């Protein structure tokens, strides 16, 4: 089995796999890199997870996820900030345990409107405050926080950060190595400013991670699970990928799929199909490939 | 029965009513204005529809809808442009038949990506070309085309115009009286630039129509039917309405609800509930009310 040398499997794509299973099937699929989630790491404990990651030989590309800090000051907000501090430490530890070329990136999903609130402007301001509070910890740990804009259909209940431009504005007060942004095609493909903001993100040195997955309609009943293999929807990966590459982005590229059918399929099949779809619609537009991807 | 003097019922809110029923129940509900859809008008014919509208004593606020012109040149595109020309004529006729204060506004929904296409940039360019082609007809008929940005979750299959800023950019080459924009809270509430773009739309004299309805999650299985009575979701109507009023907007305000439960309810109940929700969450923030709304 083989996979493109810059392809990283985000663990959520095989959500039902344990950490051990995810590492094994990803390495067996010929991948060189993986993005992890906090919950399966916590199941075995950080030390054990780090050891297994090292044993896998895979690069670590990101930890999902921090964030969820839109609530007003109080115990819940303190708990969220504390949880994010732990996530920063976990990210640093895992990046150190991954193979050379690992990136200490912690993905931040902002969180939605607090229950009963209509104050979107206030919620967005509290995201800015939370990031400011976490930056010293991230800097000390050598971790890059990656603000992820989510599709606007999630603005009320999941992420009040909705565009790449907004994420870059939030990142602007801080050093790019400490606060970057996530460019996920699924979330930003529709934005008339998307390509301009990708270029801006590049100029500002803030693309922490490029993630690819596709958009198709009709949306499923649970719109969280609307993500498709690259090439199975309407996103123009040629243009998007070329735009990201033109910024000089040279990190790994994650595929992260939330999709009930994909989650129900055998892990090895999903891993292989992900690699094949990446080879077909993303790889041809990469300027930097360490090695050509065997078909 | 009474309703706020600036409240207009968009006919889609009582989708299953015939034109005659819609006019009757809207007038009986104390409304002074209605927005119509082409299909129920066509059912009785334009002349008969105009006569009934005149008899109702209601103002006409808009016709839904033109647009759906993202396809490349060919017979389908010609048919679309011709259909839009007829819609312009219908708008002019209905506005003349409505009570004084009627506005000759034709709402344009751009249309999604053509079947099998991933060329979002091209589709958007064809929207600009279609508008340019229709402007002389609209100008001659005294009709204002209103470009409606739809929520980005509809970008692939319904409207490639996704933000107010994009709609204003599309309108920019033309006179504001001929090409304006729709400000529908449901579609734009999430946008970090929404309030700035409302102010811009005001400065440029382009707010053709302000429509209010609410956003709530979870979204229904058919995301087209996700619209709620004002006040039953998360949108901050105080801030939004004040921003629109601050531009000097003084036209009627439509409520347009696509919602299976609302469509299944008795027309008179929907009409009354719409008026009550408007009184409660929108009316208090209006700078210009011809008369106070009796509770």
Automatic annotation (TrEMBL), chains A, B:
Pfam families: AP_endonuc_2. Keywords: Carbohydrate metabolism, Isomerase. It comes from the Bacteria. Residues 26-266 form the Xylose isomerase-like TIM barrel domain. One of its GO terms (molecular function) is isomerase activity. Coiled coil: none annotated. PANTHER family: HYDROXYPYRUVATE ISOMERASE, XYLOSE ISOMERASE. This is Sugar phosphate isomerase/epimerase.
């Amino acid at each position: 089995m083989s996979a493109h040398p810059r392809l990283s499997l985000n663990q959520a794509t095989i959500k039902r796999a344990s950490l051990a299973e995810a590492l094994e099937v990803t390495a067996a699929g010929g991948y060189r890199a993986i993005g992890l989630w906090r919950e399966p790491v916590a199941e075995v404990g950080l030390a054990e997870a780090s050891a297994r990651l090292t044993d896998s030989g895979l690069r670590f590309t990101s930890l999902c996820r921090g964030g969820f800090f839109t609530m007003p000051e109080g115990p819940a907000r303190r708990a969220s900030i504390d949880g994010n501090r732990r996530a920063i430490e976990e990210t640093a530890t895992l990046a150190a345990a991954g193979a050379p070329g690992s990136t200490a990136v912690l993905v931040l999903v902002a969180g939605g409107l607090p229950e009963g609130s209509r104050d979107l402007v206030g919620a967005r301001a509290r995201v800015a405050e939370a990031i400011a509070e976490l930056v010293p910890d991230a800097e000390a740990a050598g971790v890059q926080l990656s603000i992820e804009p989510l599709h606007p259909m999630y603005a009320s209940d999941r992420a009040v950060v909705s565009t790449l431009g907004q994420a870059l504005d939030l990142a602007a007060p801080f050093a790019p190595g400490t606060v970057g942004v996530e460019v996920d095609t699924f979330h930003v493909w529709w934005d008339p400013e998307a390509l301009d903001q990708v270029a801006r993100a590049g100029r500002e040195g803030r693309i922490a991670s490029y993630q690819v997955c596709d958009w198709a309609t009709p949306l499923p009943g649970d719109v969280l699970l609307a993500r498709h293999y690259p090439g199975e929807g309407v996103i123009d990966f040629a243009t998007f990928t070329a735009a990201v590459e033109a910024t000089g982005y040279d990190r790994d590229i994650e595929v992260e799929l939330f999709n009930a059918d994909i989650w129900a399929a055998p892990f090895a099949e999903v891993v292989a199909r992900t690699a094949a779809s990446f080879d077909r619609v993303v790889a041809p537009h990469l300027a930097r490939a360490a090695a050509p991807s065997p078909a």
